[in-house]
C-alpha cells in the first residue's frame, strides 16, 4: 500500500464521534459539528467608526444630542443637524456620514462646521461584513482563537462540537528505561514523552501512557493483550514497538486472535513501514507504531493524524507540493519521509532523520503559508 493511500484509508475508516454542545470557553481546539452561522447581521447596526459628529445634509450643523456606544439615540436628523458621536455608537437615522473630531470646528454660535463628508464615510453599515443567517465556517472546522471570537460576535454562547478523540498509549520494550541515563544495553523511552504532545497537536487527548512488558500474556492477563483490553474508555489504542516479526513482536498475532479488521497493514514508506491500523471492535481502533522513534513519529503522522481528524469530523488538509533541497536517501518503490524546515518558498531537509534518531525532527517546521494561499507555481497539491 502506498503512503498516500494509507493516509486516505486511515481518514476514511472512522466515522465522527457523537457531537455535543459545549460553552465557548471549552470549545478551543475542537472541531465544529455543524456549520457556524451568524445569528445577527455583522455589524448589528449602523456603527460610527470614528469619534466626531454624525451629520445630515451640509453644514454648519446644529448639535441635537451626544450619542455614546451602547446608548442609542432614537431621534431622526434633519438637514443641517448632527449629533456628537463616539466610536462604536449607533448612527441615527438621517445621518449621511461621520465627520471626525479632527476635521470639525465649533462656530461662535455653538454649531459644527467642516468639510462635507462623502455619503457613508466612517459608518460601518448593518450587515456589511455578513447578513444574518450567513454560514461563516463549515462543519469540521477546527476552532481556533479567531473562530471563538467570531462565534461570540455572531451571538453564540455555545457550539456543537466533536469531542477530542481519547487515545490510550501502550509503550512496549523490556529494554526501556523511563528516567535518567540508561545503563549498558538499556534504552531511554522516547515515545512515552513524545506521544501525548503529538496526540494533543493532532487534536486528540491522551488517556494515559502505560509501559507493557514484551512477554506474552500469562495467566494473570498481563502482557500486551491484557493491556489492550485494560485500556477502557479510549477511542484509539496506540501500541509502540511491537510491529515487527520478531519473537517479542506480538501485536499482529494479538489482533488476529482477537478477530480485528486490518485497515492498513504495512506501508510502502521509509522509515515506518511496519505500521498498522486495525479496528478491534466497532469504533475501537488500534494503531501500531514501530519502536524506532523517528519511524514511530512518521507512522503516527501517517495513520494517527488522519484517524483523529476523521473521528473529529475534520477533512484532511491537502498536502503542498514544493521544491525540496538537502540530502535524502532514495527509497525505491516507496515514499521517503523526511523532516523539512521552510526556507522561503523551498523546504530544506533537516539532517539526522535515521529511523532510530530524533536529531533532525525537532527542527522541522510546518508550512508558513497555507497551500491554498501560496503561489500556485510552488504549491500545487501533490496528487
Ligand atoms: N527481520 C526483520 N526485522 C526487522 C524488520 C523487518 O522487516 N524484518 N523491520 C525493522 C524495522 S524497519 C523496524 S521500524 C523495527 C520495528 O520493530 P518493532 O516495532 O517491533 O520495535 P522494536 O523491535 O521493539 O524496537 C525497534 C527499535 O526501537 C527501539 N525502541 C523501541 N521502543 C522505543 C521507545 N519507546 N523509545 C526509544 N526507542 C525505542 C528499540 O530499542 C529498538 O532499537 O523492526 C526492524 N526489524
Ligand atoms: O522502517 Mo523502520 O520503520 O526502519 O524504522
TrEMBL record:
InterPro entries referenced in this protein's UniProt entry, alphabetically: MoaB/Mog-like_dom_sf (IPR036425), MoaB/Mog_dom (IPR001453), MoeA-like (IPR038987), MoeA_C_domain_IV_sf (IPR036688), MoeA_linker/N (IPR005110), MoeA_linker/N_sf (IPR036135)
Q: Where is this region: Disordered?
A: 109-134, 359-383
Q: What does this protein do?
A: Catalyzes the insertion of molybdate into adenylated molybdopterin with the concomitant release of AMP.
So which cofactors does this thing need?
Answer: Mg(2+)
Q: What is its EC number?
A: 2.10.1.1
Please list the reactions this protein catalyses.
adenylyl-molybdopterin + molybdate = Mo-molybdopterin + AMP + H(+)
Classification via SMART domains? MoCF_biosynth (SM00852)
The UniProt family comment states: Belongs to the MoeA family.
- Name all MoaB/Mog domain ranges: 168-310
Q: Which UniProt keywords apply?
A: Magnesium, Metal-binding, Molybdenum, Molybdenum cofactor biosynthesis, Transferase
Q: Which domain of life is it from?
A: Bacteria
Q: What Gene3D superfamilies would the database entry show?
A: MoaB/Mog-like domain, MoeA, C-terminal, domain IV, Molybdopterin biosynthesis moea protein, domain 2, Molybdopterin biosynthesis moea protein, domain 3
Name of the featured protein: Molybdopterin molybdenumtransferase
Return any one Pfam family short name. MoeA_N
Q: What pathway is it annotated to?
A: Cofactor biosynthesis; molybdopterin biosynthesis
Determine if GTP-binding is one of this entry's keywords: no
